[in-house]
Amino acid sequence: MKFFFVLLFLQFSDSAFCYHDYRDALSKSILFFEGQRSGFLPQDQRMAWRADSGLRDGAERGVDLTGGYYDAGDNVKFNFPMAFTTTMLAWSVIEFGELMPPGEKRNALVAVKWGSDYLLKSVSDLPNRIYVQVGDPINDHNCWERPEDMDTRRTVFAINAPNPASDVAGETAAALAASSIAFQAADYGYSETLLRNAIRAFQYADTYRGAYSDNSDIRDGVCPFYCDFDGYQDELLWAAAWLRRATGEGFYVDYIESNGQTLGATDNINEFGWDNKHAGLNVLVSKEVFEGSMYSLQSYKVSADSFMCTLIPESPSSHVDFTPGGLIYKPGGSNLQHSTTITFLMLVYANYLHKSSHTLHCGDLTVGPATLRRLARKQVNYILGDNPIGLSYMVGYSQKYPQRIHHRGSSSPSIRIHPNFISCKGGSIYFNSPSPNPNVLVGAVVGGPGEDDRYEDDRADFRKSEPTTYINAPLVGRSSVFVNASKTLERQVLRFQLESI
């Protein structure tokens, strides 16, 4: 009889997440970043098939730009998405760090610091110059070469004052400010260093307004890969919001309030990612509105409420598309970046609703935090294998995951095993090989399936098979929530079992 009641409890407790090992998923989502490291690798490097790379980055400009992350399966360091990745990793620690097992919180902070250390180097010449990229993407993309072997020119792309770079400088400011909050308790001195440099980066972004990719000197290097497609205004407000949270200073509240109209904050743009911060900005600013301290910023909460309502299928304002299997879908490549960022915001907003005892009103529909968490959980479960083809889109999680991801280091023999140099074109045999990648990039989340839930395990189809840092970063926070939730469920099931004896 007690077995029947346990099954009944599991069926109706809205607990599909009990079938997944979220702690394992969290651990692996953080471990992935070690496989993306550039520079001198530490002795405790766990992704052992990787080795030092990019050790002369910055040398052509006489500056040290070693370190940081390769953004995806190539060997270029694009600061715009790297800064966003760092912001999201830091936000994950800020919002959900208390839910992480202690060892994983430490690992998450290490991942944040690998990005923030590099970003500090990128702003070392402010107020005169900000470095925005290392590596020639055209030459790099014409090679299939391990990062340890790369011999393409490591071109340094920089923006000199008074040329504008509001987007990349603003996102760098946000990343450094968020990281300063994440490190406040662990390393106060480092936190203060991050904050000072965040303020300097924001001053450059605000003083020289405009998109960095509009600069003719660098446009051919950053476009079409990480151009500013959606405008620089959101990054200015995004940076100001993070600086407000890091400093508590009223100046940034005034900035957000007074610039909201002119910089488009009230535009209800339902996007969030490395190029478009509007939805994230509205959610972030809403925290202070929920806490009752900043009613003047109510318009941001209104926009955040509206965004959340678009995500709820039963809402009269719902307009997000889903695949037949239930994945949030937006046209274009690397679709899982949308699922991970959007559901991260759902979980953050659910926290704000819960802590302030608020609900969300979508027409006549009243939505509580549990609804947002349930919808977010479905997206996480889809990624981990609850989908029509039963494939985990996280490499190394479960028994069935992508074997031929679009990633140079993963698909080539490790330098530990094959120490001989592999040339630019010499790696083509590994790109074209039908064999699984020899090195497992544990934790990497690939671009994901198409709108029909189909996924071909094809290294050449980079839109589906290439992992990126900005897909993984939001997943760190999302997995943390469900690690804690699954523990709670286990306790509830145990108590129910005992009571039903």
From TrEMBL:
Catalytic activity, reaction form: Endohydrolysis of (1->4)-beta-D-glucosidic linkages in cellulose, lichenin and cereal beta-D-glucans
EC assignment: 3.2.1.4
Residue ranges of every copy of the Glycoside hydrolase family domain listed in the record: 22-477
UniProt cross-references to Pfam families, sorted A to Z: Glyco_hydro_9
Catalytic site: 406, 457, 466
TM spans (from-to): none
GO molecular function: cellulase activity
InterPro entries recorded: 6-hairpin_glycosidase_sf (IPR008928), 6hp_glycosidase-like_sf (IPR012341), Glyco_hydro_9 (IPR001701), Glyco_hydro_9_Asp/Glu_AS (IPR033126), Glyco_hydro_9_His_AS (IPR018221)
Signal peptide: 1-18
Sorted UniProt keywords: Carbohydrate metabolism, Cellulose degradation, Glycosidase, Hydrolase, Polysaccharide degradation, Signal
Swiss-Prot/TrEMBL GO biological process terms: cellulose catabolic process
Family: Belongs to the glycosyl hydrolase 9 (cellulase E) family.
PANTHER family for this protein: ENDO-1,4-BETA-GLUCANASE
Protein name as annotated: Endoglucanase
Organism: Nepenthes gracilis
Upper lineage: Eukaryota, Viridiplantae, Streptophyta, Embryophyta, Tracheophyta
